[in-house]
Specification:
Layout lengths: L6 E7 L1 H4 L7 H11 L3 E8 L3 H14 L2 E5 L10 H9 L3 E3 L1 H13 L13 E3 L3 E3 L8 E6 L2 E6 L3 H20 L4 E10 L3 H8 L10 E7 L2 E10 L2 H18 L4 E3 L5 H12 L3 E5 L5 H6 L9 E6 L3 H8 L3 H7 L4 H15 L3 E7 L14 E8 L2 E8 L5 H21 L4
Parallel strand pairs: 1-2, 1-3, 3-8, 13-14, 13-15
Antiparallel strand pairs: 4-5, 6-7, 7-8, 9-11, 9-12, 10-11, 15-16, 16-17
Helix pairs in contact: 2-6, 3-4, 9-14
């Protein structure tokens, strides 16, 4: 029997991860799934394909945590040393599993591919390990006891990793450990609120010993908030989460745009489609990103008229009818010009809503009066035009453009929530 695994660690293995050639997408997904079971991942480690270091780390973490999940390094080539490292850490030899060998040979024959002898490395497991079959690839996973904990090894390719996690490891954990406590989760997606301001307003909801426990992650102008309640029974856990959900909705009503869809553009786009509200975009510094985000929404063609990327002043005059004297007096990056862009886009596109963006994304072009990060917005809704101005930190160009895109979508979202929309 595995002792109650309420703490765990995850190891991502591969030289390509350390060298930055591939991103580690497995660890976060594994941690989120374990959290659903009430298992807190306390550490992430990213290691290369170095047998001795892997073995030492596996031993160290299994001594510290009841559960360690490793992913990667199970291929057939000599640089895939996860099996050897696990055997070293467990103090056992590798042994060939006849059932895995038979499966591999049958698989290659069925695919009419030559069976290289190097593939037999994938049939070798630490002596005494429990096999976890791979339904989507050639590399099986396994569970092996090391010191005071169990090491579960999953393949590196995400599709194989996540399938084995769900098909093999999670059921085994539930059957072996039980739940002990029951958990209920919820999530919220907010816009127009800095992470620090959120923390101030959330107050003691974010205490480490709070139940439900709350976590927040900032991403390109939006916040993802997660709640996890624990209790002796499922019913009590769900009661706790429901009570906090109700209080959260009331406290953050102005910023809450979704409880399931993390993409603001999809929330906006679906609402436009549902209500039959036509929209046009006019963009300068964002270069069409607002239109790009909106046109990712299925069915948006019913309401999205067209998008204008009017980078040059001459284009703003010719395509949107922005008065030349307005540009001369206030400059392209101004609330006045942004408002004129929105009005012109609504008129040219025959749309009920138009959103316009003009700003200084950098790294050059800023002044003391108009620094890098200054972005102006125009919004036209059924002929009523408003203008807005934001100043983003002078970070890299792509980040400023992305934040400006989300800010533009936020303006449309708030307009859709207004009583007259």
């Amino acid at each position: 029997m595995i002792r109650d695994p309420r703490k765990a660690a995850v190891i991502a293995i591969g030289d390509e991860l350390l060298e930055g050639r591939h991103a580690d997408t497995n660890s976060g997904a594994i941690a989120r799934r374990l959290a659903d079971l009430g298992i807190d991942v306390v550490e992430f480690r990213v290691l290369g394909d170095e047998r001795d270091r892997l073995a030492r780390t596996m031993w160290e973490l299994c001594e510290r945590y009841p559960l360690v999940v490793a992913t990667g390094g199970l291929g057939p080539t000599l640089d895939d040393v996860t099996r050897e490292a696990a055997a070293d850490a467990a103090g056992v030899n590798l042994v060939r599993d006849a059932s895995v060998e038979a499966h591999l040979r049958e698989l290659f024959a069925r695919r009419k591919r030559e069976f290289a002898e190097s593939n037999l490395r994938q049939a070798e497991l630490p002596d005494g390990a429990q096999l976890m079959p791979n339904q989507n690839g050639t590399a099986p996973g396994f569970r092996v006891w090391i010191g005071g904990g169990v090491l579960a090894v999953l393949p590196g390719p995400p599709r194989e990793c996540f399938d084995m996690l769900e098909r093999e490891l999670v059921p085994w954990l539930l059957a072996t450990c039980g739940r002990g406590e029951h958990f209920a989760t919820a999530s919220f997606h907010l816009v127009g609120l800095a992470e620090s301001s959120f923390a101030d307003r959330a107050g003691d909801w974010m205490a480490r010993d709070a139940n439900p426990r709350m976590g927040v992650t900032a991403h390109q102008g939006t916040l993802r908030v997660t709640l996890r309640a624990r209790a002796a029974t499922r019913e009590r856990a769900e009661e706790r989460i429901a009570a906090r959900q109700a209080a959260f909705r009331e406290r953050f009503a102005r910023e809450l745009f979704s409880e399931d869809e993390p993409r603001l553009a999809f929330v906006v786009g679906r609402e436009l489609v549902a209500r039959g509200l036509t929209i046009t975009t006019a963009e300068s510094c964002t270069g069409g990103m607002v239109a790009e985000f909106l046109t990712e929404v299925p069915g948006i063609s019913a309401v999205f008229r067209e998008g204008f990327v009017t980078y040059a002043n001459e284009a703003k005059v010719a395509r949107l009818g922005v008065p030349g004297e307005l540009l001369e007096r206030h400059g392209a990056v101004s609330r006045e010009v942004a408002a004129a862009m929105a009005a012109g886009a609504a008129r040219a596109g025959n749309a009920r809503i138009a959103i316009a963006v003009s700003g200084i994304a950098g790294p050059d072009g800023g002044t003391a009066e108009k620094p890098v990060g200054l972005v102006c917005f125009g919004l036209a809704v059924d002929g009523v035009v408003t203008s807005h101005e934001l100043r983003f930190p002078p970070v890299d160009r792509h980040t400023i453009r992305t934040f400006a895109t989300h800010a533009a979508l936020e303006l449309v979202w708030r307009a859709l929530r207004a009583p007259q929309a």
